[in-house]
Write a structure and sequence with these properties.
By secondary structure, this protein is of the alpha/beta class. It folds into 3 domains: 151 residues, 3-Layer(aba) Sandwich (Rossmann fold); 56 residues; 214 residues, no CATH class. Helices cover 44% and strands 17% of the residues. It has 19 helices and 17 strands. The strands form 4 sheets. A 6-stranded mixed beta sheet has the order 7-10-11-3-12-13, with helices on both faces. A 5-stranded antiparallel beta sheet has the order 2-1-4-5-6. The protein has a 4-stranded parallel beta sheet with strand order 15-14-16-17, sandwiched between helices.
């Protein structure tokens, strides 16, 4: 089971947000004060009522309390401009769930009714209380509405909910921890050893409570002669709950310190870490829905990257819904998983450019329509690789032609971290192909340590039999030999050019051996000449022994682009 969609009406600034589809990971983005936080809080309100407040109301009936539901105050949360006109108006939130095949049979067994399609539950909150009901028109809907208590039980027994607010105080982290610990400890309360221990505690407490009862009775009897007996009891449920309260998290990073004295980043990661642990231990296929407000709030950039990794890992098994201003949290693979909230309306993003506009992010002209950017070291690398890729892959050739695969150069390997941080902020997916030399390796290591690059996002120009190599080492000498020899009057057949050094160092040795000048401008010119010759003969350009390097790069690009296409198609079909 998963939460498929949410509709929110008459809640704070949201007059009506219809059927916002939720994926495995959903990001609500948009300007401040346009409603994204209110949509998330509406979700929090409804899911809390459904999964946490079960003991506070009889489903299908109203329960009466001052604020109707925890976190809801009618005077503040029902739209102020409607309060005079609709003094008994209600906030309505519809949660729509999808079921797995086996759950349709389970639904029939538990509710004694059959359904097809999605399972919608409407939660109404007003001055007079809360109602939870089955929300679907058509044949059998009336009888199903009468079974709302069982339906809500069915949902809440399969889904857990957690909320991490934007203002993450130590207490909020502690509350999340306490709640999760409480639920984990519930699992041992039916164990015989635990029950026996409780009985022993009850036996030890009983004489003390009886003595106190007698003492109070004797005191009261002096003033209230009609009092016949006083009895002090500690209900078993309260006793059991007492053993689950008062948890404290201590973190040892050199000194054992309470979590409340740690920074926001540690608290956020601790809360998510415990949620992840609890979700991994969840039995019976129970899923978590986790709502996170502005995960980047008050965090150091490194902590944001760590938090993103934890969130991504959680989203593999559970649902994550977040609000954010940070491009890092945008779903680059399935664009429509990003919900744009603007002018108090919510809609799935249609393209990356739409997201960039709402976040105030700029991208260069050649990257505006790009689904993937291949980052290389120099402009000459773009010339040669574009030709080779187009020559070997029809799929990537079309991607290049329509702009979904773009190229960008570093103009030097040392700029890798800076370049891909710009691409990430411009909401681009990227792949890296750099020289397999000291500069390339160090740049890769630095980018990886900074959380900017993963192993699956890079290929190195690793020529066969060389400790260090450049992209030119992958190319057959005969492709470019004549053009260079004719222009510079050198001989590339001499032993100096057949050594183990990387290409540019061997070329320098050749120029030195011929008494020719050598500098950066000459090297740049020759690299351009090589790239042009490769572009004229792309299918014959690569050394036989190095073809696997090029094939591996092409396969990585194809796989990642196809995965992105599939992710978007899955979202479309699911919607």
């Amino acid at each position: 089971m998963k939460l498929h969609a949410i509709s929110v009406s008459q809640y704070r600034s949201i007059s009506s947000a219809k059927r916002i589809r939720l994926g495995r990971s959903t990001v609500l983005i948009g300007p401040n004060n346009e409603g994204k936080s209110n949509i998330l809080r509406g979700l929090v309100l409804a899911m809390t009522i459904l999964t946490r407040d079960r003991q506070r109301f009889m489903l299908g009936r109203r329960y009466r309390t001052i604020n109707s539901a925890r976190g809801y105050n009618w005077e503040k949360d029902y739209p102020i401009n409607l309060q005079k006109k609709y003094p008994n108006g209600e906030t309505e939130i519809i949660l729509e769930f999808t079921l797995e095949d086996k759950e349709y049979d389970e639904f029939y067994q538990e509710v004694n009714s059959r359904i097809t399609g999605n399972l919608p539950i409407k939660i109404g909150i007003g001055k007079n209380g809360v109602t939870v009901s089955y929300h679907k028109k058509g044949k059998g809907s009336a009888s199903l509405s009468k079974k709302s208590p069982k339906i809500a039980d069915f949902v809440s027994s399969r889904i857990e909910f957690e909320h991490i607010p934007a203002v993450r105080t130590a207490q909020s982290a502690q509350d999340i921890v306490s709640d999760l610990v409480n639920r984990e400890l519930l699992g041992i309360e039916d164990h015989p050893d635990y029950q026996n221990a409780l009985k022993k505690i009850e036996e030890l407490q009983k004489p003390i409570l009886e003595t106190l009862s007698v003492s109070i009775y004797q005191t009261l009897k002096k003033f209230l002669p009609q009092v016949k007996k006083v009895k002090i009891e500690l209900p078993q449920a309260e006793r059991m709950q007492a053993f689950r309260r008062g948890t404290e998290v201590l973190v040892d990073d050199g000194t054992m310190t309470p979590l409340q004295y740690k920074g926001d980043g540690v608290q956020s990661l601790a809360a998510l870490g415990i949620i992840r642990h609890a979700s991994d231990r969840t039995s019976g296929g129970k899923k978590f829905v986790i709502a996170i407000e502005e995960p980047e709030s008050h965090l150091h950039p490194n902590a944001i990257h760590e938090l993103k990794e934890v969130i991504d890992k959680l989203s593999e098994k559970h649902q994550i819904i977040i609000t954010s201003h940070n491009p890092l949290f945008v779903d680059r693979r399935a664009i429509s998983n990003n919900i744009i909230v603007n002018d108090r309306k919510a809609k799935p993003a249609k393209n990356v450019e739409e997201i960039r506009k709402i976040l105030g992010v700029r991208a260069s002209d050649n990257l505006r329509n790009a689904e993937m950017v291949l980052v290389v070291e120099g402009e000459d690398d773009i010339i040669s690789l574009k030709a080779i890729i187009q020559g070997y892959s029809e799929y990537l050739s079309k991607a290049i032609e329509n702009g979904s695969l773009a190229f960008d150069s570093l103009n030097g390997g040392t700029n890798l971290s800076y370049k891909i941080s710009l691409l990430r902020d411009a909401i681009c997916l990227y792949h890296v192909f750099v020289d397999d030399d000291r500069c390339g390796r160090e740049s890769y290591k630095k980018a990886k340590e900074s959380g900017l690059l993963e192993d699956g996002q890079i290929n190195l120009a690793k020529a066969c039999g060389r400790n260090e190599s450049e992209i030119e080492d992958l190319f057959a000498v005969d492709i470019y030999k004549a053009s260079i020899e004719n222009k510079y009057h050198i001989n590339l057949s001499i032993p100096k050019f057949r050594g183990k050094k990387k290409w540019s160092e061997r070329l320098k040795d050749v120029f030195d051996a011929h008494g020719k000048p050598w500098d950066d401008s000459i090297e740049k010119d020759i690299k351009y000449m090589v790239a042009k010759q490769v572009s004229l003969n792309p299918k014959e350009a690569t050394n036989v022994q190095d073809k696997l390097i090029i094939e591996s790069l092409i396969n990585a690009l194809e796989t990642r682009l196809r995965e992105k296409e599939k992710a978007q198609q899955d979202v479309s079909v699911d919607g």
